[in-house]
Amino acid sequence: MRAPAYTEAGIIDFATAEAGVLTVNSLAVIHGSDLSYETKIRSAEDLLGGKYQTALPGANVSVRMGGIATPVEFASPKLIIFVVPANLAAGRSDVQVVRQGVAGPRIRVEVRAERPLLYPAEDGFVLARHAESGEWIESRSPARPGEEVLLYAGGLGQLVPPLRELQAPLARLPLEKGAAIRVWLDGVAFGRPWISYAGAVPGYAGIYEIRFRLPVAVSEDPEVRLTLEGLSCPAALRLPLRYATAQPEAARPR
Predict the structure, then answer these.
(1) Nearest residue to 111 via CA among 204, 13, 10, 35
(2) More exposed terminus of the chain, fewer Cβ within 10 Å: N or C?
(3) Radius of gyration of the chain (CA)
(4) How would you classify residue 244: left for phi > 0, otherwise alpha for psi between -120 and 50, otherwise beta?
(5) What's the CA gap between 99 and 61, in Å, rounded?
(6) DSSP readout, 205-224?
(7) What residue ranges do the domains of the chain occupy?
């Protein structure tokens, strides 16, 4: 029976694909072989009392960091998606996969307490929804100037109250440093009141939702970044956005 096989180069940040550097309460990916016998996506029914199980039901695959069980969202023979625990201390930590009792190697990675991470969709665009309809924003369903959009991110720090081990948020929990979040569009920063909510997505650890009102004058497909107390996204993404009529000159926030 072969053990799960993976290396430091195969343990990457979900948002940036950067190897060996992960952030607390954000999504991470393990690429390897023999990681799972089954392909399984975590379902809402897999949460027991609002908590993830120590191993992903249906696959019996777990990931541990520094001896702490992590929430596992997806497992397949060659790929695992998991959440860096919200209660994990920053510094160096071991990552280890256990498949049905058979353990893989312990791999050391760097863990950061906070780092704004916008989650990507396809083709260099940010993962986002129309706030009113809940539909995904994409090229065939772009955002419009002045509408509210929902952006999805990781690594934004503690929630209020903070999550415990394997706990999933069951309600909209605000971000402890919500007042410090800034959304940047083409180099222009927007804070409150443009951002009406920054916090948890109920039922999902490792994912933050930012409810953001777009300005009425903005460039099409603007570059989007996040900052938090001087920390910036490692890479910028674009938001699919189109005007129904002629585009006015972009305005600046007051």
Answers:
(1) 13
(2) C
(3) 19
(4) alpha
(5) 5
(6) EEEEEEEEEPPSS--SS-EE
(7) 8-112, 117-238
**The dihedral of CA 184, 189, 195, 201: what is its sign?**
positive
pTM (predicted TM-score)? 0.93
- CA–CA distance, 205 with 59 (Å, rounded to integer): 19
Q: How far apart are the first and last CA of the chain?
A: 63
- What is the C-alpha separation between 233 and 118, in angstroms, rounded? 7
Cβ atoms 87, 69 nearer than 8 A: no
Closest CA to 251 of 145, 122, 137: 145
Q: Is the dihedral angle over the CA atoms 198, 200, 206, 208 positive or is it negative?
A: negative
**Residue 94: closest CA among 104, 86, 79, 81:** 104
Q: Class of 8-112 per CATH?
A: mainly beta
- Distance of CA 187 to CAs 46, 147, 149, 214, 236, Å? 41, 19, 18, 14, 10
Strand partners, 208: 153, 200
Cβ distance 117 to 154 under 8 Å? yes
The neighbouring-strand residues paired with 212 are: 149, 195
Structure confidence by residue, pLDDT tens digits, 25-73: 999 999 999 999 999 999 999 999 999 999 999 999 999 999 899 999 9
